[in-house]
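Renewal narrative, Specific Aim 1. Our central claim is that a sequence can be written position by position from structural information alone. The example that follows is taken directly from our test logs and has not been curated for this report. It begins with the C-alpha cells describing the chain, in the order in which they were read.
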C-alpha cells in the first residue's frame, strides 16, 4: 500500500519532526539500557513483597477470584526474561498464551508504539479510521494470498470476535444452513456462541445451547497406526458423511484447527485434512481455518502452508501474535454490506506493532524444515528427552484414556507450539508442575483434555538457542518438587 499517503500534512510534519525523532531515539536508548540489566531469573525483593501481596489481594477482590498465577508485570523485560512488580525475574515461556512472540521490551516494537502514540485518537473503527489499520490488513493479505485464495480482511479487537465474524460470513454464504462441524477437543473462544462450539463443557456451563454443533474426531496417530492410516481416514470420512446425510444441506462450515492449541497441540497428516476438506467442497460446506494460536509459529507463516492446504481455505481467522485480530476470506465469501461492522477495529499501536511483526516474520531464515522455528523445536525436544533420560520415573507411558487423545510420545507440537507430557498426563500433577515451575522461575501453562501436557509458546522472535539449557535447568528444579 502506498506509504506516501498524508505526505505534506501537519500530521506528517509532526511524525517526521527532528525533535520527535530525537525524543524517540532517546527513549529507545533508555529502554535498551534498562532492559540490559535483566540477565537471569531472580527471586522477589523483600522490600517489595508486602506491597505486592497486598495488591494481589486487591486484584482478587476486583475480579471476584484470584489470578491463576500471582503475576503482575513491572513493565520491563529483556527478550524471554520478564520482571514482575515484586522485583522477581522469570523466563516467560507462554508469552500471554501466545501474544508476545517478540518477548518483552523489544526496541523495534516499542519504537512503533511510540510513533503510534502521536495519533490524534486511540481507537479506530469502521466509520472513521486512520491509515495504519489498512496498512496492517494489506500486509496480512499480502502474506496470506501467496498460497491461498484469501483476498479480503476484516479487522476486529479479539480472536473470539474474529471467529464470530467468520461464522457470520459462513452463515450468510450458505443460508439457511445453521449447523457447524468442529473437531473434538477444539477451543473457539468464550463468547456465547464460541463457547457452544468449543469442546469444553465447563466453558458453556449455564449457557443456553442455541447452535447446532457436530463433533468430528481429530487425527489420532496411535489409532491410525493400529488400524492403518487409510482405514482411519475412511472411518473419519464415513463419520463426516453421516452428519451430512443426517442434516442435509444444513452445515454452513467445518472449522479446522490444523494444530489444536488448547486441545493439546495435537497435529495431523496432510492426507487426513485434505480428505475432509475435499468432502466439504463436494457438499458445499465452507472450510474455515482457525489459526488464532498457530499463526506465525509453525515451520511456515500459516499452518495451511505447513500442510500445503491453502487451495481449500475459504475463511481464515488470526490473532494473538498479530496484536490486532482479523478474519480473512476469499472473493467467493465476500459478504453483503451490513453483515460485518463494529465501533472498534483496534488502536494505532496494535496496527503499527502488528505490521512490524508481520514484516519481521516475513524474512528469510525463519521458516522451513531447517529454519529458526524448526531449530528451536529441535532444541526444546533435545532438552525434554535429556530430562526424561535423567528422570525416567517422571515420564511414564501415557495410558490410553477412553474418549481422550492417545499420546505415544512425551514431546509434541510444531515450531513454536511446544508441549511435553510428564507424570503420564495426570491433570493434577501436570497443573501442580506448572505452578512449581512458576515458583522456580519459568512461566508455562497446561493444555489437553486428557492426557494433559505442559505447554510452551516461547518468544522465538527474540529467544536464543543457547537459552534452552538455562530454561530447562529451572524446569528440572520445578519438576523435582512434583516428582518427589
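The sequence written for that structure reads:
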Amino acid at each position: 500500500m502506498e506509504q506516501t499517503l498524508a505526505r505534506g500534512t501537519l500530521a506528517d510534519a509532526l511524525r517526521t519532526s527532528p525533535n520527535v525523532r530525537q525524543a524517540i531515539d532517546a527513549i529507545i536508548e533508555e529502554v535498551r539500557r534498562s532492559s540490559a540489566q535483566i540477565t537471569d531469573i531472580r527471586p522477589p525483593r523483600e522490600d517489595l513483597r508486602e506491597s505486592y501481596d497486598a495488591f494481589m489481594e486487591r486484584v482478587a477482590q476486583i475480579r471476584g477470584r484470584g489470578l491463576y498465577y500471582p503475576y503482575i508485570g513491572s513493565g520491563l523485560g529483556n527478550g524471554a526474561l520478564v520482571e514482575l512488580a515484586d522485583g522477581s525475574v522469570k523466563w516467560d515461556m507462554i508469552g500471554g498464551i501466545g501474544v508476545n512472540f517478540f518477548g518483552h521490551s523489544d526496541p523495534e516494537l516499542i519504537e512503533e508504539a511510540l510513533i503510534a502514540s502521536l495519533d490524534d485518537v486511540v481507537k479506530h473503527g469502521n466509520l472513521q479510521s486512520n491509515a495504519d489499520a489498512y496498512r496492517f490488513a494489506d500486509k496480512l493479505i499480502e502474506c496470506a494470498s501467496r498460497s491461498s485464495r484469501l483476498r479480503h480482511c476484516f479487522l476486529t479487537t479479539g480472536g473470539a470476535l474474529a471467529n464470530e465474524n467468520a461464522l457470520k460470513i459462513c452463515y450468510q454464504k450458505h443460508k439457511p444452513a445453521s449447523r457447524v462441524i468442529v473437531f473434538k477437543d477444539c477451543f473457539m473462544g468464550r463468547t456465547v456462541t464460541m463457547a457452544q462450539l468449543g469442546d469444553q463443557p465447563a466453558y458453556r456451563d449455564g449457557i443456553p445451547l442455541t447452535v447446532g454443533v457436530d463433533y468430528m474426531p481429530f487425527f489420532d496417530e496411535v489409532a491410525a497406526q493400529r488400524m492403518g492410516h487409510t482405514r482411519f481416514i475412511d472411518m473419519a470420512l464415513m463419520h463426516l458423511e453421516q452428519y451430512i446425510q443426517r442434516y442435509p444441506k444444513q452445515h454452513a462450515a467445518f472449522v479446522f484447527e490444523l494444530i489444536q492449541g488448547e486441545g493439546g497441540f495435537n497435529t495431523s497428516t496432510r492426507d487426513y485434512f485434505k480428505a475432509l476438506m475435499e468432502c466439504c467442497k463436494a457438499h458445499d460446506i465452507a472450510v474455515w481455518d482457525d489459526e488464532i494460536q498457530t499463526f506465525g509459529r509453525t515451520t511456515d507463516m500459516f499452518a495451511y502452508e505447513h500442510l500445503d492446504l491453502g487451495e481449500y481455505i475459504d475463511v481464515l481467522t488470526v490473532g494473538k501474535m498479530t496484536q490486532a485480530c482479523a478474519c480473512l476470506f476469499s472473493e467467493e465469501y465476500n459478504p453483503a454490506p451490513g453483515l460485518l461492522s463494529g465501533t472498534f477495529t483496534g488502536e494505532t499501536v496494535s496496527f503499527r506493532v502488528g505490521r512490524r511483526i508481520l514484516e519481521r516474520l516475513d524474512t528469510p531464515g525463519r521458516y522451513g524444515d531447517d529454519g529458526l522455528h524448526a531449530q528451536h523445536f529441535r532444541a526444546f525436544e533435545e532438552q525434554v528427552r535429556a530430562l526424561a533420560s535423567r528422570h525416567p520415573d517422571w515420564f511414564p507411558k501415557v495410558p490410553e484414556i477412553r474418549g481422550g487423545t492417545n499420546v505415544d510420545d512425551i514431546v509434541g507440537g510444531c515450531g513454536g507450539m511446544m508441549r511435553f507430557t510428564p507424570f503420564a498426563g495426570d491433570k493434577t500433577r501436570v497443573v501442580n508442575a506448572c505452578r512449581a515451575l512458576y515458583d522456580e522461575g519459568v512461566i508455562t501453562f497446561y493444555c489437553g483434555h486428557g492426557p494433559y501436557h505442559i505447554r510452551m509458546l516461547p518468544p522465538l522472535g527474540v529467544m536464543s538457542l543457547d537459552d534452552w539449557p538455562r530454561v530447562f535447568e529451572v524446569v528440572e528444579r520445578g519438576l523435582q518438587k512434583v516428582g518427589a
